[in-house]
């Protein structure tokens, strides 16, 4: 597997985990540990996306390095 493919797989893994935690937090809004984990995964996906785009160009036609390609608002859980 090439370095480009490896980086893309890591980005996709962090995006998936971020989205799954977003869904989990819909039903568990007070779970501070999950909220912190979601934010950590979001940051990792954003950093890896920036690395990918710096090395290989935009990931899609809308890329100007938009984090995750979706708008996730932080959960207001009082953590």
Strand content: under 5%
Q: In total, how many beta strands?
A: 0
Determine the mean pLDDT. Answer: 87
Residues in helix, %: 55-70%
Radius of gyration: 14 Å
Tally the helices: 2
Spans with pLDDT under 50 lasting ≥5 residues? none
Order of helices and strands: HH
The geometry reads as: elongated
Structural category is mainly alpha
Major sheet details: none
What are the salient characteristics of this protein?
79 residues; mainly alpha; 63% helix; 0% strand
Short description:
This protein has 79 residues and is an all-alpha fold. 63% of the residues lie in helices and 0% in strands.
What does this protein look like?
- This protein has helices at residues 3-27, 32-56.
- The protein is mostly helical and 79 residues long.
- It contains two helices and no strands.
- Helix 1 packs antiparallel against helix 2.
Task: Tell me the layout of helices and strands.
Layout: H1 3-27, H2 32-56
Helix pairs in contact: 1-2
């Amino acid at each position: 597997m090439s370095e480009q493919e490896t980086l893309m797989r890591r980005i996709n893994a962090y995006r998936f985990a971020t989205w799954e935690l977003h869904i989990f937090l819909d039903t568990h809004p007070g779970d501070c540990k999950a909220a912190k984990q979601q934010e950590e995964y979001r940051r990792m996906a954003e950093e890896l996306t920036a690395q990918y785009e710096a090395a290989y160009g935009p990931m899609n036609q809308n890329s100007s390095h938009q984090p995750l390609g979706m708008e996730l608002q932080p959960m207001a859980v009082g953590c």
